[in-house]
Specification:
Shape: globular
Helix content: over 70%
Structural class: mainly alpha
Strand order of the largest sheet: 1-2
Distance between the termini: 29 Å
Order of helices and strands: EEHHHHHEEHHHHHHH
Radius of gyration: 23 Å
Largest sheet: 2 strands, antiparallel
Length: about 375
Amino acid sequence: MHVKEMNFKVNLTYGDDNIQDDGVDHLLQLMFVFWGVIMPIIGVTGVVGNILTGIVLFRREMRSTTVYFLRTLLITDTGIIVGAIMGVSVISITQLDSKELLFNDVIYPHIFTPINYFVMALQTLNVWTTVAVTVERYIAICFPFKSINICNRRTAYIMIGITTLFSAVYNIPRCFATGVTTCGDRCYMIITTDFGKTNFYTTVYSEWLYTILIYVIPLLMLGVLNTLLITELMRMRRRRSVTNSKENTEFNLSIVLVIIVVVFIICQTPGLVAQFHFLDADFLMQWTCVSNTLFVLNSSVNFIIYTAVGRKFRTLLLKILKKCFCGPGDSSNTDRELTTLTTIKDTYGTRVTTDELTALKNDDL
C-alpha cells in the first residue's frame, strides 16, 4: 500500500499536485466508499479467515518447509489488514463527520508515522516471502533431488530471518520523513520533515527503489517462476496415473501456491500504476482507492484458496470444526476421521479414494 502523506483537513496532495475544492469532496466520498466501507468488510472477513487458517497451519501436522513461509504470509497478511484499517479506513470515515475532531486532529497525526512504517515493512516482508516460497516450490518441483539439501527447515528459517531483517531496516527512513506539529489548541497536523523533502527520499527512495523492489523485480520473478511451475505441473498431471503419493503431495502443494501467486499478481499490479506520477493527480488518487482496496483483498483471500485446494488443510479444518461443534469424540482414530473425506471432491474434481487416505495423512497442505 502506497499512500502519499496528506493533510485531509486542508487539501489532498499527490506528488507536487494539489486537489482542491470540489475535487476534495469527491475524493473524500470515493475514499469513504472504498476505504471506509468495502475495505473494512473485506478486512474483517479476511481476519476471521486468517484466524481459522492459523489454527490449521500452526498445528504439528503441518511440517512442510513451505508451511513455514505460509505461516509468515499469514502473519503479515493479518498485520496488513489491521494496519490498513487503522491507517486509512478510520480516517476516511471520520473525515465525513466534522464532530470527530479528537481522532482527526489529535490521534491520527500521532499514529500515522508508526502505522505507515508498520504496514510498509509488512508489505515488504509479504512480497519477498511470496517470492521466497515460490523459489522454494520451483526448486522442489523442477529439481527434486537437489531440493533434499536445499528445501529444509534451516534454510526456510534463514530466508524468513533475512527477509524480516531487510524489511525492518529498509523501511526505517519512513520514520523520519513525516512528523507532527501543533496547529492550534488540541489540534495537530502531519508534516513532511526536511529529510522527507530531500531528493533522495522523494525520488530515489520513495519512487524508484520502492517501485523496483516492491513491484518490478518481485512481479517479474513471480511471473517467470510461476510460468515454469505451471509448465512442470502440467507435465506431472499428464503422468499422474503412474505418480507416487509424494509426487501427488508436491503437486497439490504447488497448485495452492500457484493460485496464491496468481491472485497476488492480480491484486498487486494495480499498485504499480499508482507509482507513475506523470499521470493526472485526480486519476491517481482515484486509482489509489482501488489499488489499496485490492491490496487488502490480497491479504484476505488465502483462506478460500487453502480450503478449496489444500486437501490436508480441509482435513484438519473439518477435524477442528467437528471437535468444536460435536465434541472431541474418539480423536485417536484418525483413520476413521479421514474417511469423511470420501464425500469431498479433491483438487481434480474426483472423489478421494480409500487408497489415497493413507497417503493423505502425510500431505503438507
